[in-house]
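Annotated sample (chain length 70).
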Amino acid sequence: NRNEATETDSDYIPPREAARIAFVSTKTLQNLAKAGRIGFITLPSGHRRYKRVDVAALISDRVEASESAA
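Output written by the structure step:
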């Protein structure tokens, strides 16, 4: 039952959108997902959707890393 789910469709975004937001390629997203660094779901069609909060965390991690390197 969809009403019982804690996550909604809006909590997940398509690969192109996630890549655009995070300033990475879709291939990089695939690699990050494979390494367990970003959450995703696979739709019945086989397409992936990435967790919006994980994409935001990825951006935050990159900003913190660049600030500490400066």
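Annotation: Residues 1-5 have pLDDT under 50 and may be disordered.
Annotation: The longest strand covers residues 48-51.
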